[in-house]
Amino acid sequence: KDREEWRSRRREGIGASDAAAVIGFSPWKGAVRLYNEKIGLEVEDAEETEAMEWGRRLEPAVAAKYEEETGRALLHLGDYTILRSTKYSWMQTTLDRWIMTEDDRGPGILQAKTAGFFKKQEWEGGEPPVYYQMQQTHEFIVAGVTWGSLAVLIGGQKFLWCDFALNTDFAEQLIEREREFFERVQRKEPPPFDGSADSAALLKQLYPRHTEGKVVALPMEALQWDDELLRVKAEIKELSARERAIKNLFAEAIGDAEIGLLSSGDGYSYKEVRKEPYTVKEQAYRELRRRAAKGSR
C-alpha cells in the first residue's frame, strides 16, 4: 500500500535489482552486504540519493518517449506492486512497465532508466550494461516472458532503447545462483567475501582496528591463498613493467607534440598536468602485509 510496506516485503525474497549483487556484478552492492540486509543485520538506506530521485521522477517521461518511438502500448501496474514467481518462491520483482504487443512474442517488459553523461560509454555498442541485463533476466523469469526492452535517458538529453531476448542458458544459471544465495539466507550462512570494493569496505567496518599482540592460526587453505597471492603479485609486477615500457614508446614517439594519432583515427595525448600542493589529513587504516618466516622465502 505504500513505500514502507513495499520495502519490507522486498526483504522476503530476491528482487531484480538484487540479481547482479548475488552474482557479483553489481557496481553498488556485493553479495555479503545483500545477505546482511536480507537477515536484518544491515538496514538498506531508506533515503533517496539525488540520482535515485531523478530516476523515479523521470521514469514516466522515459516510458512515454519509448511509447512514442516504438508505437508499443505500455501498462503500469503501480510503483508498489510486487510480482512473485509461482515456480521459484524467492524470486520477486516490481516492474517498470509491461509492453503490450500484438505479435507472436506476447507481452514483454520495459526497464526505464536514467544515466549520467559520464555513463555514456556503458551504453555504447548496442547493448545495455551487463548488470541491467541480469536484472531484466530476473524479471523475465518472474513474469514468464521471453523478451523485453531497456530504454535510457543519458545526461538528460540522449534517449536510447534496445530489445533483447531471454537467454535460457544464463537464466538457468541465475536461478541456481539465486537459489543457493537464498538458501544461505535461510540457514543464516553468509556468503564468502569476494574481490569487490563493497566487500573490502565491509571488512573495514567489521574490523577497523587490530588487537595488540593477538595472533591467530590461519586455516590450511590459507597456504593456497598465499601461493596464489604471490603468483598474482608477480604477474602484476611483470605487467606493470610492460605497461611502463609501452607508455615510454608512446612518449618518445609523441615527443614535444600534444597529441599523437594512430592510423585508426584514435590517439594519445601527452600533456603537462599541474597539481596544487596539499597536505594529507591524518588518517588511520589497517593494511595487509606478508611476513615471511625466518629462513623461508
Structural overview:
By secondary structure, the protein is of the alpha+beta class. 41% of the residues lie in helices and 14% in strands. It has helices at 3-10, 19-23, 31-38, 50-70, 120-123, 130-143, 168-187, 197-206, 222-254, and strands at 73-75, 83-84, 92-93, 97-100, 108-115, 147-154, 158-165, 259-261, 267-269. It has a five-stranded mixed β-sheet with strand order 1-4-5-6-7. Strands 2-3 form a two-stranded antiparallel sheet. The relative contact order is 0.11. The model has no long low-confidence stretch (mean pLDDT 87).
Features:
five-stranded mixed sheet; 9 helices; alpha+beta; two-stranded antiparallel sheet
The averaged pLDDT comes out at 87
Largest sheet: 5 strands, mixed
Q: What strand order characterises the main sheet?
A: 1-4-5-6-7
Strand content: 5-15%
Q: Which class of secondary structure composition applies to the elements?
A: alpha+beta
Please give the alpha-carbon distance between the first and last residues: 63 Å
* Poorly predicted residue ranges: none
Helical stretch tally: 9
Q: Helical content, roughly?
A: 40-55%
Q: Tell me the radius of gyration.
A: 24 Å
Large-scale geometry:
globular
The arrangement of helices and strands along the chain is: HHHHEEEEEHHEEHHHEE
